[in-house]
């Protein structure tokens, strides 16, 4: 069950304690004149008159008085923000962050946190992507129940009037079935009782939120836990077990003892491994809490997936009078970016674990007092689900909290979330999750998005973009060497751009226009159409370091080519050796050594050995491919290495 954030914002009290006019004695006479003039203008209520003096002070003090620089920057930023001068406001917030960020006293970092959040909202950003087929694309080492590509859709069913606890009704209600049914249970309840008969019988996958409501000391290896595990095994299909989530928040009884928590989570994980091999363990903190969630991490050996619990609401804690500062700190409110609240956990853990948004919801109406915010909530939901496949490709599951609080008034939430309760929400969810990336069954998406800077750009190319503008995005244009080629009018701004027949250097420009039709930001992507390309089984390979030609031999990045050929790659930095394992055979190439080995047997010396170029290990493409029973040909006209199975 969703818990209400109860953490008090202690750092806001620190802001009031920070010096109002902390000035180093080394200020110049000119700076002192500006200080006096700004003080007089501010005291007289003439903020517009004070702004030029604050601007001068921030610029001047930045070189020799970081504390005072931050003081005046934190006055300047909100003043400009209130007047709609958002570009200047961002510069002031950035100056505050730069100045106070260099001070050792942690109170400065805490004091500027609201402006750090506001800067994130105002900072324009464009990240472009190209579509790639997943067939033949390396997926890396996958965790238990992790789809190679795509995000599993899920949600609650038993308190959603549109489906009435029946998984078979989800597709009709929301456009796609759920790959995951989310259910909750408390300690001492049997797993077979956590779901209705329909959910247990028809769900392809369960996510079970198991809550030790009697406290962590009650979690023991005994009859109850073993029976619970065997029940989950009897389900016979994949289970995600989210044990004791939101442990970093004081609203849970299992909060407060990280050492004991880690011990009990590891115990549950061990028993599940012994009794229920179909269970994947999910460690799921709240995205915010009153204690560092990392203290509770049980270790990679006990965790299969890292989850996040987090909701998005128009009003912080349902309070229509809550300050904008509070909302910004906790990534809530009408101006929040719904993706930002998950960035820290995703960045930290996704390199080694798949990420699950264990439970989420978008509040389309405040509950008490009632206030409809469905237009904003539908747009925010679409922004989150629309951009997720681009910016969070290893966020592999999302479960929506579809609970009707009107029919179930005892559910402790501050907002209405249930999608079927509002037509705008239902339509937005259907539209955005219709994308192939979202999986209604535990399969895999047929395509994925590659960052444009890592892609080989050629031919007809499908592009998309993640864009953040402070005034919202109205449309996006794609230009080739300054000439418009395509326009997109709905996020994630998908368009087709023809890059056929190009030679030499070119620039693909992404231009974002705000909702007022004004250009908000642009980004150039420079690419060289004359670089060597590699086409494997009809698919162009993408490289972050272009292939090179040395002594009439083509060298390509080792990881990209070997993984595309189905091998698992490892790198030994001490010996500078690449090891590729495929079908039990072990191929090794050492930097600078012309003699590779296959299963410890020395092979014929290479004309050009493996080399490090641009920070990447490059290997001879012909040697690698032919050792994996592939034919290699060279297309002179297109400067392309063509690799295909031997006939």
Distance between the termini: 58 Å
Largest sheet properties: 8 strands, parallel, barrel
As for the number of domains, it is 4
Query: Structural class per helix/strand content?
Result: alpha/beta
The coarse overall form would be globular
What is the CATH first-level class name of the largest domain?
Alpha Beta
Q: Any idea what the CATH superfamily of the largest domain is called? A: Glycosidases
Question: What is the CA-atom radius of gyration, in angstroms?
Answer: 28 Å
Fraction in helix: 25-40%
Q: Could you say what the CATH architecture of the largest domain is?
A: Alpha-Beta Barrel
What strand line-up does the widest sheet have?
2-3-4-5-6-7-8-11
Per DSSP, the total helix count is: 17
From the 3D structure, determine the CATH topology of the largest domain: TIM Barrel
As residue ranges, the low-confidence spans are 1-23
Number of strands: 33
Kindly state the mean pLDDT as a whole number? Answer: 92
Beta-strand portion reads 25-35%
Protein architecture, described:
This protein is of the alpha/beta class and 647 residues long. The chain folds into four domains: 11-122, Serine Threonine Protein Phosphatase 5, Tetratricopeptide repeat (Alpha Horseshoe); 150-443, Glycosidases (TIM Barrel); 448-528, Sandwich (Immunoglobulin-like); 533-645, Copper amine oxidase-like, N-terminal domain (Copper Amine Oxidase, Chain A, domain 1). The protein has an eight-stranded parallel β-barrel with strand order 2-3-4-5-6-7-8-11. A five-stranded antiparallel sheet has the order 25-26-27-28-29, covered by helices on one side. Helix 2 runs antiparallel to helix 3 (47-61) and helix 10 crosses helix 11 (258-275). The termini are far apart.
């Amino acid at each position: 069950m969703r818990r209400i954030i109860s953490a008090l914002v202690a750092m806001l009290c620190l802001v009031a304690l920070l010096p109002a006019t902390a000035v180093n004695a080394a200020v110049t006479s000119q700076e002192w004149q500006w200080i006096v003039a700004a003080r007089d203008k501010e005291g007289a209520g003439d903020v517009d008159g004070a702004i030029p003096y604050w601007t001068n002070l921030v610029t001047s003090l930045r070189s020799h008085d970081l504390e005072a620089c931050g003081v005046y920057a934190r006055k300047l930023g909100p003043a400009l923000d209130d007047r709609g001068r958002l570009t200047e406001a961002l510069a002031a917030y950035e100056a505050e962050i730069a100045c106070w960020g260099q001070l050792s006293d942690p109170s400065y970092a805490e004091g500027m946190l609201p402006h750090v959040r506001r800067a994130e909202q105002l900072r324009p950003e464009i990240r472009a992507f190209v579509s790639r087929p997943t067939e033949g694309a390396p997926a890396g080492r996958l965790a238990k129940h992790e789809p190679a590509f795509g995000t599993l859709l899920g949600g609650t069913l038993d308190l959603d009037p549109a489906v009435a606890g029946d998984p078979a009704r989800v597709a009709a209600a929301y456009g796609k079935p759920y790959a995951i049914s989310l259910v909750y249970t408390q300690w001492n309840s049997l797993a077979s009782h956590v779901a209705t008969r329909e959910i247990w019988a028809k769900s392809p996958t369960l996510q079970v939120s198991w809550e030790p409501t009697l406290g962590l000391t009650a979690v023991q290896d005994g009859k109850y836990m073993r029976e619970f595990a065997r029940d989950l095994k009897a389900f016979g299909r994949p289970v995600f077990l989210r044990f004791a989530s939101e442990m970093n928040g004081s609203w849970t009884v299992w909060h407060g003892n990280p050492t004991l928590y880690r011990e009990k989570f590891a115990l549950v994980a061990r028993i599940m491994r012994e009794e229920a091999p179909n269970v994947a363990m999910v460690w799921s903190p709240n995205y915010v809490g009153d204690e560092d969630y990392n203290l509770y991490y049980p270790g990679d050996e006990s965790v299969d997936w890292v989850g996040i619990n987090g909701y998005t609401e128009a009003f912080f804690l349902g309070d229509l009078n809550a300050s904008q500062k509070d909302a910004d700190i906790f990534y809530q409110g009408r101006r929040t970016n719904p993706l930002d609240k998950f960035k820290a956990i995703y960045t930290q853990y996704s390199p080694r674990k798949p990420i699950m948004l264990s439970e989420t919801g978008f509040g389309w109406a405040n509950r008490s007092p009632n206030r409809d915010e469905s237009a904003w909530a539908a747009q925010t939901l679409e922004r989150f689900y629309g951009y997720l496949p681009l910016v969070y490709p290893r966020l592999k599951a999302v479960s929506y909290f579809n609970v009707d609080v009107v029919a179930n008034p005892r559910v402790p939430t501050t907002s209405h979330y249930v999608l079927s309760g509002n037509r705008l929400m239902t339509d937005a969810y259907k539209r955005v999750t219709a994308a192939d990336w979202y999986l209604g069954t535990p399969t895999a998406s047929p395509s994925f998005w590659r960052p444009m800077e890592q892609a080989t750009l050629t031919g007809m190319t499908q592009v998309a973009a993640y864009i953040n503008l402070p005034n919202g995005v109205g449309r996006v244009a794609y230009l080739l060497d300054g000439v418009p080629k395509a326009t997109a009018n709905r996020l994630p701004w998908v368009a087709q751009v023809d890059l056929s027949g190009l030679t030499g250097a070119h620039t693909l420009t992404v231009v974002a226009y705000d909702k007022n039709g004004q250009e908000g930001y642009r980004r150039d992507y420079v690419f060289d159409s004359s670089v060597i390309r590699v086409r494997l089984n009809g698919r162009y390979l993408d490289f972050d370091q272009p292939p090179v030609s040395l002594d009439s031999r083509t060298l390509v990045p080792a990881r990209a080519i070997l993984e595309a050929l189905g091998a698992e790659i490892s790198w030994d930095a001490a010996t500078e050796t690449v090891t590729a394992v495929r079908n039990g055979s072990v191929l090794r190439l050492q930097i600078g050594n012309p003699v590779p080995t296959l299963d410890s047997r020395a092979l014929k010396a290479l004309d050009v050995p493996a080399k490090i170029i641009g920070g990447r290990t490059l290997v001879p493409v012909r040697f690698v491919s032919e050792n994996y029973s592939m034919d290699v040909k060279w297309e002179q006209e297109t400067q392309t290495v063509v690799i295909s199975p031997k006939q």
